[in-house]
Specification:
Length: 198
Amino acid sequence: MRTYRAHFVTMAPHVGVLPEPTLQEIAMVGRSNSGKSTLINFVVGQRHLARVSQRPGKTRAIVFFDVEERFHLVDLPGYGFAKTSQKEQGQWERLLLAYLDPQARPLVGVLVLFDMRRDPDELDMAMVEMLRSAGIAWRAVWTKADKLKPSQRKNRAIKLDKLLGTEEPGLMVSSKAKLGRDAIWSWVDERLGPEAPA
């Protein structure tokens, strides 16, 4: 499995410290327990690039990683964590809305993560509607596919696609089963476009 050159760049806990854009950006977003950190590490082939917390909702900032000096992979704060206050949730929402302004960031695509075992709820649908309203390209990612039997995955994915109303089928992934990494990279490469000649 290829290891990509990737490193931490910066983190932005509030709107005032969002970094100036220097590269195209691909973001990941999902519920606090959707497995974003695990997926980031799996995609770049590094075990400890993104910290995997035992406490969902711990990441309360937008985190930027440089990948191959080609693009920034952006970890957006997880949503739906019950132990956060309304004030914190409001701050996160403002931060998210500021980042998802297509006029402000070179954001070329968002991977939206969903635990494959669970149906999308109101918060999930609101996240998807936010991206649609902003005109941002996005792709559903069904995480934790290893928790289902291989015979169950296809029908489950079809149901989830229908529930979300996706234009493209969601991508099934599992770091444990080494599933879906190539499909994610194909989508990322498509969104980034051809690399500039050296």
